[in-house]
């Protein structure tokens, strides 16, 4: 969960005023207070998903502010129009308005404008679909296959892949030792920039995504055990408004086998990691049966790297197949992979949809947390 004050969290459990703000940025910026042109928010939401290629997407309805507090947003009349889909981004925040007139904001990130639509032209509201900065990485495929030197560090390689698309991007690592380690072998990549970047960070046992402040973050996935960061409960001071649940085994695996590519002088490397938690209904060796996933990357050069990559991929499946969908009073600080408590059960957030309207609930899709116990396996 993003850092917010204790007053913020306690205020959410009582009667309070919600606030929302959107600014259109015409230049690439980083941070939680960019320069931009504020536009009205009539409705919308921000959806973030831990397993999606593009982690966060924005749906925003703008136009004429009924209160007249913010100048009306206008349909783009030419390529330089503020809402034209040619590179401008929308920075979005939501938060709490306190009784003393102050506000505490939570930023949701920078979103590239993709599709403005106006069903009732020329004066009706404008619906905008926008995506976080990973969309630019996905779009920015190599013109020809690339070869990366063995002497490059992992940090240099990530920087090259990112800054060729976003020259002013800020990149943050949780481990500078890993960042400054050399790749150790020449790697050839096809035309897919995004897949090359994801293969690289996965081979290091990490994930890469665009954070709420516009920074590209490379980090070890958060632990799925520990103290829940938020409680979704009913009753006195509760926030839960609706609950549904489902169980499925489709798309679930309980062991991941990761391998590297052999060379003329070295044998192939590999590692396998399985769900071994005794309380997990999908545990490897249990009645669920073995369901492996296989992953290969040219960046995997040691057995230890293979194991790290396998563990990252397996974590995305731990806790399935029991999932819960709930609606609640919005907590805009929640993020994918947060550990929360729903009633008496601990759950991990897979998808969170944060509303940009005061009368709409937050929607959360989770998977039940059975414990984090993984281990190496062999045939």
From TrEMBL:
Species: Kribbella solani
DUF5047 domain location: 73-184
Lineage: Bacteria, Bacillati, Actinomycetota, Actinomycetes, Propionibacteriales
Protein name: DUF5047 domain-containing protein
InterPro entries per the UniProt record, alphabetical: DUF5047
Pfam families, per the entry: DUF5047
């Amino acid at each position: 969960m993003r850092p917010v004050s204790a007053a913020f969290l306690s205020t959410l459990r009582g009667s309070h005023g919600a606030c929302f703000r959107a600014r259109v940025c015409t230049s690439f910026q980083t941070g939680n207070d960019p320069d931009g042109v504020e536009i009205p928010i009539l409705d919308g939401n921000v959806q973030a998903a831990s397993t999606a290629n593009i982690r966060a997407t924005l749906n925003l309805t703008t136009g004429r502010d009924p209160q007249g507090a913010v100048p009306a947003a206008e349909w783009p009349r030419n390529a330089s129009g503020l809402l034209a889909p040619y590179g401008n981004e929308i920075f979005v925040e939501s938060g709490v308005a306190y009784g003393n007139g102050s506000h505490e904001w939570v930023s949701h990130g920078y979103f590239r404008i993709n599709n403005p639509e106006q069903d009732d032209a020329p004066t009706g509201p404008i619906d905008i679909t926008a995506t976080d900065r990973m969309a630019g990485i996905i779009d920015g495929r190599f013109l020809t296959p690339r070869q990366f030197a063995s002497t490059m560090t992992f940090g240099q390689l990530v920087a090259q892949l990112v800054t060729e698309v976003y020259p002013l991007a800020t990149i943050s690592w949780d481990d500078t030792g890993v960042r400054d380690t050399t790749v150790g072998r020449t790697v050839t990549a096809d035309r897919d920039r995004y897949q090359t970047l994801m293969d690289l960070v996965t081979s290091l046992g990490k994930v890469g995504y665009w954070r709420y402040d516009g920074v590209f973050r490379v980090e070890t996935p958060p632990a799925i055990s520990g103290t829940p960061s938020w409680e979704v409960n009913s009753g006195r001071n509760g926030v839960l408004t609706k609950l549904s649940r489902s169980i499925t085994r489709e798309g679930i695996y309980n062991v991941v086998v990761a391998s590297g590519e052999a060379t003329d002088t070295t044998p192939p490397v590999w590692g396998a990691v399985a769900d071994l938690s005794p309380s997990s209904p999908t545990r490897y060796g249990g009645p669920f049966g073995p369901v492996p996933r296989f992953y290969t990357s040219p960046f995997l050069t040691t057995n230890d790297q293979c194991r790290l990559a396998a563990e990252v991929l397996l974590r995305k499946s731990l806790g399935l197949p029991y999932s819960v969908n709930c609606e609640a009073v919005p907590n805009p600080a929640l993020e994918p992979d947060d550990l929360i408590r729903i009633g008496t059960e601990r759950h991990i957030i897979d998808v969170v949809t944060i509303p940009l309207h005061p009368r709409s609930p937050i929607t959360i899709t989770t998977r039940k947390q059975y414990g984090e116990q993984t281990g190496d396996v062999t045939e």
